Amino acid sequence: MSLLARLAPHLPYVRRYARALTGDQSTGDNYVRVALEALAAGEQQLSSDMTPRVALYHVFHAIWSSTGAQLESGGLETTGGGDASQRLLRIAPRSRQAFLLTALEGFTPSEAAQILSADPRDVERLIADAQADIDAELATDVLVIEDEAIISADIQSLVQELGHRVTGTATTHDEAIDAVARHKPGLVLADIQLADGSSGIDAVKDILKTLDVPVIFITAFPERLLTGERPEPTFLITKPFQPETVKAAISQALFFHPSRQKQAA
């Protein structure tokens, strides 16, 4: 199989990553072009110890590490002062890379470590640093829809640890709608099966009719959402959950939600 055929499925995604990393489309695309030219000329090679996608990003970072500071400056000059790209550029470069590789591109911390030629423990620390920066900048009001009191208290504690404010809690569909009427949240965390037999899915649908807000489902019944019959949620956490999983999902949901980017532009 030719080099181009091996890499073609991954090129749109590495371009997406490059644009997010640099904060500028032309700069990011130029970076990808340089990486591909280096591969074609034999100056760089795909590692046989990595999957083709991981190896492509690894080559990209080999190029980035040699000239990244110059291209990063170009991104800062051409990016608007308040949009999501600009927020990314305010995160330390190494933390930004680790965060984007895992949050945007879906690599595991171990794969990100391969790409960055770093220790997996260092990558996890970098991701945590990036999430802390993002959470501090995007602190918001949160509605928790959960009928189990202990779990609700745990979620509220995690939300507050990240610097957000819990401005509403609900255990039923009707309570959730009432809570939104009293105070519009910037983020919703919802269970599926609620106290009176009502549905968290229906509550979220009704909330989204009037409010464009990111939603994270935390549920013991993920199969009810993963049916393939309708658009499935981006953020779905299965109970019992790990606290760090919830924290990471909150950071990603707030950062990448489209309305956030429109409001900041």
Give the topology, please.
Blueprint: H1 3-7, H2 11-22, H3 25-40, H4 52-78, H5 84-89, H6 93-104, H7 109-116, H8 120-137, E1 141-145, H9 149-161, E2 165-170, H10 173-182, E3 187-190, H11 200-208, E4 215-219, E5 236-238, H12 243-256, H13 258-264
Describe this structure in words.
With 265 residues, this protein is α/β, with parallel strands linked by helices. It contains 13 helices and 5 strands. The C terminus is likely disordered.
Short summary:
It contains 13 helices and five strands. By secondary structure, the protein is an alpha/beta fold. α11 links the parallel β3 and β4.
Largest sheet: 5 strands, parallel
What are the segments in which pLDDT stays under 50 over at least 5 consecutive residues?
69-82, 261-265
Shape: elongated
How big is the Rg?
A: 20 Å
Strand order of the largest sheet: 2-1-3-4-5
Percentage of residues in helical conformation: 55-70%
